């Protein structure tokens, strides 16, 4: 009887260790998402506030090699962003890349156009940075060019 009790105790201890290790890994992934979520919010807020120079600082090094600060500042002019909401964060298994779907409310000539671009974020030097995309993946929920309005 004593060996059965020890076996059960050892099995229970092993199960607890496995569960704790799994929780630690999940907690680590959640922490990475929270850090990324804050980074995305700060980037989007810089755009809403029209702080394009600050928004440029969120790009990763390869993106800054492709597009200079001056070209970035002149390319965008001053779009009027009214708001945003993070719709989905998908972390890659490696934990150093993620895609983020953000709903952006863009005001154009009195109309609000909700856009849903997918942003690609990468870890670089311990922080999250946005990858530049010349043709961002966008899905509009209304007024999409080429669609007939009902």
- What is the tally of beta strands? 5
CATH homologous superfamily title? NTF2-like, domain 1
Q: Point out poorly predicted stretches.
A: 12-31, 136-150
The domain count comes to 1
Question: What is the ordering of alpha helices and beta strands?
Answer: HHHHEEEEE
Average pLDDT confidence is 76
Level-2 CATH architecture: Roll
Q: What structural category characterises the helix and strand content?
A: alpha+beta
Q: How many helical elements?
A: 4
CATH topology: Nuclear Transport Factor 2, Chain: A
CATH class: Alpha Beta
Q: Terminal Cα separation, in Å?
A: 77 Å
How would you describe the shape? extended
Largest sheet: 5 strands, antiparallel
Proportion in β-strands: 25-35%
Question: Which structural traits does this protein have?
Answer:
five-stranded antiparallel β-sheet, 44% helix
Describe it:
There is one protein chain. This protein has about 150 residues and is α+β, with helices and mostly antiparallel strands. It has a single domain, classed as Roll (Nuclear Transport Factor 2, Chain: A), CATH 3.10.450.100. It is built from four helices and five strands; from the N terminus they run ααααβββββ. The chain has helices at about 1-50, 50-55, 60-65, 70-75; strands at about 80-90, 95-110, 110-115, 120-125, 125-130. The longest helix is centred in the first third of the chain and has 47 residues, at about 1-50. It starts with a helix and ends in a 20-residue tail after the last strand.
């Amino acid at each position: 009887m004593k060996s059965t009790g020890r076996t059960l105790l050892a099995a229970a201890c092993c199960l607890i260790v496995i569960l704790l290790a799994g929780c630690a890994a999940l907690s680590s992934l959640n922490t990475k998402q929270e850090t990324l979520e804050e980074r995305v919010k700060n980037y989007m807020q810089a755009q809403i506030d029209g702080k394009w120079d600050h928004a440029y600082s969120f790009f990763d090094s390869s993106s800054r090699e492709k597009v200079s600060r001056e070209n970035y500042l002149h390319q965008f002019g001053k779009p009027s962003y009214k708001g945003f909401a993070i719709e989905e964060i998908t972390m890659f298994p490696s934990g150093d890349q993620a895609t983020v779907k953000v709903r952006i409310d863009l005001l154009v000539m009195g109309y609000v156009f909700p856009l849903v671009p997918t942003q690609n974020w990468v870890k670089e030097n311990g922080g999250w940075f946005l990858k530049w995309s010349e043709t961002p993946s966008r899905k509009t929920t209304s007024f999409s060019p080429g669609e007939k309005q009902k």
